[in-house]
Amino acid sequence: MANSKYEYVKTFEQPDNLLSRTWIVIRIDGRGFTKLCSRYGFEKPNDRRAIDLMNSAAQCVMKDIPDLLLAYGVSDEFSFLFHKDCTLFQRRSNKLVSTIVSTFTGYYVHLWTNFFPDKPLIPPLPSFDGRAVLYPDVTSLRDYFSWRQADCHINNLYNTSFWSLIQKAGLDARAAEKRLSGTVSKDKHEILYAECDGMNYNREPDVFKKGSVLYRSFELESRHALLGSSETSAPETPTPQSKTVAEKDRKRRLKATVAIEHIDIIQEDFWNQRPWILS
Ligand code: ATP
Ligand code: ATP
Ligand code: MG
Ligand code: MG
Ligand code: MG
Ligand code: MG
Ligand code: MG
């Protein structure tokens, strides 16, 4: 259908390629999940089945899209990371965001019955929004993930205190909110202990306190051996990988297990122990 008189309309499309050599984070978030929670009776403050469903959908996305390096999830959101040198879809923002969002949504809906066998999905179906954000260096990128994990901690401490006041101390929502207003972290720990059956926040599961980190768990040594010395010899001008090396790397990425962990990603340890993630 080339060269029809209509083809000029193609020129109305705006280029949207994301800036080269910057880290790409695509964050998706469930639309109206507050309502979805009550419609399907999610346990409050944390429904483990719903978290496992989010994680499984994200794991499938990572398996389908081998360019993805890492994903971090909490509540109804997930952040997916592409390498700064990634060239998937010529870095076109709309292509990247819409592919992540629709792949994730497809798996979320597909996997739903595995986690909620007794609660079939009925419209309105779960949907997600998405955006791409660029980070120019590893410091700001690490700060991004620290921000999300700190947010997880703050929200979870609040939500755990709020729901424990309702479920264990017998307060209603308004009274629980009032009890927590103006409290700092230390006060909430004390409220949980003194007013909610001696609850110790530190003993809450890590999956609630820290969220979920997904990454390919292959070894550092084999990756470096595969890439050869080209990377280390000219760090300023990345040499394009030969087709065979790139293809081998892709196959390895496709085969690699995608690990799901609930650990600290704010401190150095996580990144130091897994240097291949950002390499
Ligand atoms: P929006 O469409 O603007 O994102 P929303 O209702 O989805 O609106 P969010 O700020 O994204 O609002 O909040 C998500 C809500 O879903 C929060 O109330 C959160 O506690 C709840 N939620 C998400 N996952 C779970 C879960 N696993 N268990 C219990 N509640 C959850
Ligand atoms: P990309 O990921 O770049 O979009 P693609 O393989 O999806 O790659 P498209 O240019 O979108 O490529 O083309 C879609 C293909 O699917 C075409 O070959 C089209 O003929 C085929 N196709 C789509 N719908 C149907 C259908 N209902 N019956 C038969 N073939 C179809
Ligand atoms: Mg939102
Ligand atoms: Mg939401
Ligand atoms: Mg949210
Ligand atoms: Mg197509
Ligand atoms: Mg098409």
Topology:
Elements: E1 23-30, H1 33-39, H2 48-64, E2 68-74, E3 77-82, H3 93-115, E4 128-135, H4 138-167, H5 173-180, H6 185-195, H7 206-210, E5 212-216, H8 220-227, H9 230-233, H10 243-255, E6 258-261, H11 268-273
Helix pairs in contact: 2-3, 4-5, 4-6
The protein binds adenosine-5'-triphosphate (2 copies) and magnesium ion (5 copies).
Predict the CATH topology of one domain: Alpha-Beta Plaits
Helix content: 40-55%
Bound molecules: adenosine-5'-triphosphate, magnesium ion
Q: List the helices and strands in order.
A: EHHEEHEHHHHEHHHEH
Shape: globular
User: Which architecture of one domain does the CATH hierarchy give at level 2?
Assistant: 2-Layer Sandwich
Q: Tell me the major beta sheet.
A: 6 strands, antiparallel
Total number of helical segments?
Answer: 11
Tally of strands: 6
Distance between the termini: 43 Å
Report the portion of residues in β strands: 5-15%
The CATH class of one domain is Alpha Beta
**Poorly predicted sequence stretches spanning 5 or more consecutive residues:** 229-237
Rg, rounded, reads 22 Å
Strand order in the sheet with the most strands: 4-1-3-2-5-6
